[in-house]
């Protein structure tokens, strides 16, 4: 099977499937354009563990890990099959590189995984396994996670890293939905895209010190850490500029894709 790409997407709010936005259209088109993968390994900002865990359920549940949203959102189900054999393969790949890792046979898919997948693969017929992150271990740890998992791409596995180019809930609601993104968002997103495009991994790893308005965009790191898994799994090389530039809908929630 052809080697699968690596994607990093900003998954937006849980309401993304309900909103007729450019972000939703983008993800829908992306799902149609991709060669169908054998399975998806999703890395979500919304599952944090002490050591890497991989979901091993045959039929992972749909986790509604949010509150205060429209009632119809809680009725969404994403009944994609799991892939216990892929979970075992991922753990073995991690252990081969010195990581301690484990399988969680009960965990379902949180909205960081199922929201973009629902839009990209609405038939829910592609098996999905989810990998947890370890926010206490920082970006370089997650880069190495991605490097360990890179061989799975040769086996037809699509690595989907799901987080956010910017994630500051303290600022939520302060800007009109039809307004241009504030300067502190645009500056950081442009910086991020520029250095990913250039393959400047060391600068990206130091984003907290070198990125403009980095702490303003990410008061906590968990929503950017999936990007580093994608960088590691993508391996050396450059991504296409047209595929990396941030795109903004009037809601400011269009994903920033990393494709290699």
Could you report the average pLDDT, rounded to the nearest whole number?
A: 86
Q: Which residues form runs of ≥5 with pLDDT under 50?
A: 238-260
Largest sheet: 4 strands, parallel
How many beta-strand runs?
6
> How many helices?
10
- H/E element string? EHEEHEHEHEHHHHHH
**Beta-strand fraction estimate:** 5-15%
Q: What shape does the CA trace take?
A: globular
Overall description:
The radius of gyration is 17 Å and the shape is globular. It has helices at 22-33, 84-96, 111-120, 138-149, 183-197, 201-205, 207-210, 214-217, 225-234, 241-244; strands at residues 6-10, 39-48, 53-55, 102-104, 128-133, 157-163. The model is unreliable at 238-260 (pLDDT under 50). The chain has 10 helices and 6 strands; from the N terminus they run E-H-E-E-H-E-H-E-H-E-H-H-H-H-H-H. The protein has a 4-stranded parallel β-sheet with strand order 1-6-2-5, with helices on both faces. The chain is an alpha/beta fold and 260 residues long. Strand 3 (53-55), helix 2 and strand 4 (102-104) form a beta-alpha-beta unit.
């Amino acid at each position: 099977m052809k080697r699968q790409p690596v994607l990093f997407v900003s998954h937006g709010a849980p309401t993304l499937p309900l909103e007729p936005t450019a972000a939703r259209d983008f993800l829908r088109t992306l799902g149609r354009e991709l060669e169908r993968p054998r399975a998806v390994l999703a890395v979500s900002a919304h599952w944090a563990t002490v050591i890497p865990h991989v979901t091993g359920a045959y039929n992972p549940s749909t986790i509604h890990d949010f509150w205060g949203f429209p009632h119809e959102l809680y009725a969404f189900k994403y009944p994609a099959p799991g892939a216990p054999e892929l979970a075992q393969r991922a753990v073995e790949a991690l252990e081969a590189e010195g990581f301690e890792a484990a399988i969680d046979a009960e965990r379902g898919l949180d909205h960081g995984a199922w929201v973009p997948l629902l839009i990209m693969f609405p038939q829910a017929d592609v098996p999905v396994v989810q990998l947890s992150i370890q926010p206490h271990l920082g970006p370089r740890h997650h880069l190495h996670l991605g490097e360990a998992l890179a061989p799975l791409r040769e086996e037809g596995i699509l690595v989907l890293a799901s987080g956010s180019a910017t994630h500051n809930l303290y600022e939520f609601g302060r800007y009109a939905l039809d307004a241009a993104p504030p300067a502190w968002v645009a500056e950081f997103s442009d910086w991020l895209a520029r250095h990913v495009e250039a393959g400047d991994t060391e600068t990206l790893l130091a984003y907290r010190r070198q990125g403009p308005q980095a702490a303003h965009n990410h008061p906590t790191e968990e929503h950017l850490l999936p990007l580093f898994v994608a960088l590691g799994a993508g391996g050396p090389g450059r991504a296409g500029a047209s595929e990396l530039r941030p795109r903004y809908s009037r809601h400011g929630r269009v994903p920033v894709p990393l494709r290699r």
